[in-house]
Design a protein that fits this description.
The chain is an alpha/beta fold. Helices cover about 30% and strands about 25% of the residues. Helix 1 packs across helix 2.
């Protein structure tokens, strides 16, 4: 696993992305884009013509776009709720989501030669991805994303709803 080295700018962006920040919409999306760029800058150098970023919909789209802007590779989307996964026809494939809680959805389509990138992953899911994982941060928190503004117990504001300003 690779975890992004933190500096003041990264920590400020992380603070925006946290569930308790109260920040939604374009400001949150821009933070995801910037963190995606920063993570991509610290990943192995890959041939852009032979690399595809697969954005997990909907929550992974902005983080994946940041990686795409930085890497200049190919980009496609995957909606696990409505379609079957079709592996891109490139040597390098990076599955990208904003939040990985259990890792179940990604683990279902992940192949040994693929990579996984995310803004945050729950500490209990890290072992599923071993050396394939690139993340901004690891979190002890785990809750079910809901249509709520603040976390109460095991329910908190859904990242996707926050990204699209729908809370």
């Amino acid at each position: 696993m690779y975890e992004l080295v933190k500096d003041d700018t990264i920590n400020e962006l992380i603070a925006i992305t946290k569930s308790d920040s109260g920040i939604s919409g374009p400001e949150l999306a821009k933070a995801h884009i910037e963190l995606g760029k920063r993570l991509a800058e610290n990943m192995p150098k890959l041939d852009p013509k032979d690399t595809t970023i697969v954005a997990m919909l909907r929550g992974g789209i902005f983080f994946a776009e940041g990686m795409y802007f930085s890497m200049g590779c190919k980009l496609q989307t995957y909606d696990p709720k409505h379609e079957s996964f079709v592996r891109p026809n490139t040597k390098n494939v990076i599955l990208v989501d904003s939040v990985i809680n259990t890792g179940k959805t990604i683990a279902e389509v992940l192949e040994p030669d693929m990579m996984v990138a995310c803004c945050v992953i729950n500490e209990n899911a890290v072992d599923k991805f071993d050396k394939q994982l690139f993340t901004v941060r690891v979190s002890k928190n785990s809750f079910v994303g809901s249509n709520v503004a603040h976390q109460v117990g095991n329910k908190g504001p859904d990242t996707t709803m926050r990204l699209f300003n729908q809370l």
